[in-house]
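Open question from group meeting: does this chain pack into something compact, or does most of it stay loose? Before anyone orders reagents, we agreed to write out a predicted structure and look at it together. Recording both the input and the output here so the notebook holds the full record.
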Amino acid sequence: MSNLNMYAPKSRRLTQGVNVGGVIVGGQAPIVVQSMTNTDTADIDATVAQVAALSKAGSEIVRITVDRDESAAAVPKIRERLERLGLDVPLVGDFHYIGHKLLADHPACAEALAKYRINPGNVGFKNKKDKQFGQIIETAITHNKPVRIGVNWGSLDQTLLTNLMDQNAENGSPMSATQVMHEAIIQSALLSAELAESIGLGRDKIILSAKVSQVQDLISVYTQLAERGDYALHLGLTEAGMGSKGIVASSAALAIVLQQGIGDTVRISLTPEPNGDRTKEVQVAQELLQVMGFRQFIPVVAACPGCGRTTSTVFQELAQKIESDLRENMPVWREQYPGVENLKVAVMGCIVNGPGESKHANIGISLPGTGETPAAPVFIDGQKSATLRGANIAEDFQSLVKSYIEENYR
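C-alpha cells returned:
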C-alpha cells in the first residue's frame, strides 16, 4: 500500500505547482483536499473553532467568506488565533462584488490570507469590471499571493454569455444552449487568467475553477478547460446537495475527471444536515481520493456487507468501532507512527471469505457467522495469531490493532 504510483492520475502538463501558504497545488504534488467554513467570519470564535475542526479532519486549505469590513478586519485576528493553537492551515479569502475595496482598505487581511478567490462574473460590471479585477490582481502581486479565478455558472459573466449566444445564432451550424454555456464558462476562466498574467501575476500564482452543479456538465467543462490551458485546477461540483445525493453526485463527477489526470485540489460541497458536522465533506473528499488510489489518509478497513450468514450484528458493531477508533486517533498516530495510514485492517462477518480477507490484511478478524457464539480468529500478516471470545471482542481487537501499530510503525 505504500506505493500507489500504479493508480496515479495521468501526468499533468504543469511543471510548477502553486504555493498556497506552504501547500503546493499542482505540478507533481498530491491532490489537495480543501473545505470552506459556513460561519460568519466576523464571529472570530466560531470561525476559529470551525477552521480548527476542518483542519483536524484533514482539510489542507480552508476558505472563509470575506464579504464586508467586519469580516475583513477579523481575518488577521483569526490567523493569529490559529497560530497560537499551533495551526498553520492556509486561509483563502472568498471575495465577491467588493473584494477590490476590502483588500485595499484592510491590508492586514490581504497579508494574512494565503490566497484570494475571485469570481469574474461578479468582480465588477460593465466598464468597472476589468478595473476592479485588476486592482485585486495588483494587490495579490504586492502581497505575493496566488489567486483562484473561480467561475460559477450561477453567476456567469452575462456580457460574455450574451455575445457568445449572438455569435452562435449567426452560425450556420449552431451549438446547443448547453454547449454555449460551457464555452462561456471556459472562456471566462481563460480570458480572466490571461488578463491577470498581462497585469503581472505569474502563471504559477493562478488556479482556475469552473463550478457547475450537474455531473455531465462538470465532466465536459473540465475536460475542455484542461485541454485548452495549463493552469492548476480546483475541482468541485457546486450545490451538490445533501446526504447521499451530494456524495454520489460529487464522487461520480470528480472520479471521472481525476482519472483523466485533471484536477489538483478538490472540495466536496455538501449541504450539511441541520446542525450537521461540516467536516463530513472533508471525510468524503479523503475517501474519494483514497479509494481511487491517489492518496492514503487513514488505514483501510475492509468489512463484508453482511448476508443471511451474518444475522448477528457483532461484526457490524465491531467494524464501526474499529473505523471510528482509527479515524479519531489518526491525527496523533500520523505524527507518532509514520506510514500508519497504509495499514490494512479486515473485519469480516462469517467463515466464507472472512479468513481469506483477514489473511490479506495486516491485521484482520473473522467472526463465525449465523447464530454465532463469538469466537473469532485474528490473523496478523497472514498468520493466525489469536482467537478472541466473549463480550469484549471489540475492545480486545482494538488493543491488538494498537499493539500492531506500535510495533510496526516507528
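Observations to bring back to the group:
The chain has a mean pLDDT of 89.
The two ends are 17 Å apart (CA to CA).
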